[in-house]
Amino acid sequence: MSVVPGPALDDELGRLLHTWMPAQRWYPAKGRGVGLRDLGAFAWPSSEPGVDVVTHVVGLDSGDRLDVVQVPLTYRAAPLASAVPGATVGVLGSGDAARHVTDGPHDPAFVGALLAALRTGEGALPVPAGAPSRVLSGEQSNTSIIVEPVDGPPAIVKLFRTLHPGANPDVEVLEALTRVGSGHVPALRGWLEGTWLPAVAGPGVIPVSGHLAVAVEFLPGSEDAWRVALSAVRDRTDFTAAARDLGAATAQVHADLATAFGTTAVDEAARARMVASLRARLDWARSAVRDLDVHAAALDAHAAALDGLSDLPPLQRVHGDLHLGQVLQAPGKGWVLLDFEGEPLRPLAERTVPDLALRDVAGMLRSVDYAAGHDTVGEGVDPAAVASADAWAAATRDAFCDGYGSVAGRDPREQADLLRALQLDKALYEVVYEARNRPSWLRIPLTAVARLLG
Ligand SMILES: Nc1ncnc2c1ncn2[C@@H]1O[C@H](COP(=O)(O)OP(=O)(O)O)[C@@H](O)[C@H]1O
Ligand SMILES: O=P(O)(O)O[C@H]1O[C@H](CO)[C@@H](O[C@H]2O[C@H](CO)[C@@H](O)[C@H](O)[C@H]2O)[C@H](O)[C@H]1O
User: Fold this and answer.
1) What are the tens digits of pLDDT across the range 376-391?
2) Per residue in 329-362, pLDDT tens?
3) What is the rounded distance in angstroms from the CA atom of residue 385 to the CA atom of residue 281?
4) Name one Pfam family in it (predicted).
5) Nearest ligand (C-alpha, residue 365)
6) Backbone CA torsion sign across 401, 404, 406, 412
7) Nearest to 444 by CA among 328, 277, 323
8) Three-class secondary structure of residue 302 per DSSP
């Protein structure tokens, strides 16, 4: 990457970031008091005279935890005319020396520098620098920039906001799946790596490297399955044909992942590790969310029964956090799976170890339950509406499993105990996720925990 080390994060910029960052959707330390740590900066060659482009790597230190985020910024003498609300970080200095600070993805000066620095794999179509771009709006844990060249296919560049040393699973998996010709993922078009100081600073410390961004083909006119499913359940329209295709696409991606990364048979030690990890998640969720206390006896019984899990299928790379919001119905391409980063609340090292493909099936079944329960879980809902949402969910879940089994050769419902344990595992993760991020949604996974334990 043709960038050079950039300026330090000084107190004045630190104060601006302290105010601006917590309001961003991607900010990982919501609700926690943090001290900012300067873990490095890259100064980018800027195509616009007088505009400085700098990516700061900032540690968010809350004492017991340190999240590392990348914050690309531009510095201009005058405000960026095209800046949308939220893109303006603030002003440094005053009078003639004032520097207007903008969130990089919203500034063409940063996007041009970023596109020029992307690395491209063999045979991949590079993303031209200088093409018009816009930031994807909507709920996102990262920041994506859609690039639409006038004379070439569009691309979408995702800036990973939370950084981890080493390969980002999204880049690693998309590279492998593109290589084996998987038809159910967007083709990889480029990536970017960077270097910063590790979380633990000190004398003689060695910098770490990792992925900063990934670029893939943009699929215009796509609809995400969460929105389609939510309107289908509201209108009580059939979603079974789509769910069957989605099940088949999921099984095909699992087959492609097995081809690209191989599989590992489960011996007794691996089985014991799997049971231990399911128990560890149970303990983690119970200690994080007190609403689970009412199920103490049933959760204890479930934890004990996990020893009975046997005949586990081979382990392989999986998606790790598959839900309806992670799949697009793309014109001419069918179902496409996105975002192979795994569960954001899980440590990165755990997200890349070979796992059960059924975990993704369980994730999708939970997502169908979310769509059905979105409007009907809670007090005072008409029982007829609950019954019809439940019937929609049951038919959709069956269709997804039918489609999955038709490609995988084994129907997921044949492994009922394992599938139930994985759905419960996911529902417990969701209880923690919702308690931290969307407390008003908490009742959806809590209701599922009660049902799955019952
Ligand atoms: N290749 C693509 N083509 C069209 N839209 C996309 C593409 N990739 C992502 N998106 C849109 O961007 C959203 C967020 O992408 P995702 O990779 O899940 O980001 P995040 O990791 O921030 O959640 C998706 O839900 C989808 O709407
Ligand atoms: O998309 P991310 O990788 O950031 O995943 C996280 O956020 C998801 C919500 O955006 C969350 O998914 C949960 O809510 C979905 C509805 O919004 C539902 O379809 C999923 O089944 C449910 O798990 C995901 O768990 C979390 O990791």
Assistant:
1) 887 788 888 889 999 9
2) 999 899 999 999 999 888 888 999 999 999 999 9
3) 33
4) Mak_N_cap
5) 2
6) negative
7) 323
8) helix
pLDDT at 2 over 50: no
Instruction: Find out whether 449 and 435 touch, Cβ atoms under 8 Å.
Output: no
Let me know: does 141 contact 111? Beta carbons within 8 Å: no
Taken in order of first residue, the domains within the chain and their CATH numbers are 4-217 (no CATH), 223-453 (3.90.1200.10)
Longest dimension (CA), the chain: 72
| Distance from the alpha carbon of residue 326 to the mean position of ligand 2, in angstroms | 8
Q: For the complex shown, is ipTM > 0.90?
A: yes
Query: Which atom of ligand 2 lies at the shortest distance from residue 426's CA?
Result: 23
Tell me how far apart the alpha carbons of residues 424 and 422 are, in angstroms, rounded to a whole number.
5
Nearest CA to ligand 1 atom 26: 224
Note if the pTM is more than 0.80: yes
Query: What digits encode the pLDDT tens for the residues 409-441?
Result: 999 999 999 999 999 999 999 999 999 888 999
3 state SS of 134? strand
* Residue 344 alpha carbon, nearest atom of ligand 2: 27
For 222-236, what is each residue's pLDDT tens digit?
Answer: 999 999 999 999 998
Residues found in the chain: 454
Could you say which ligand is closest to the alpha carbon of residue 186? 1
Residue 376's closest CA among 308, 448, 315?
A: 448
Q: What are the residue ranges of helices labelled H in 34-120?
A: 108-117
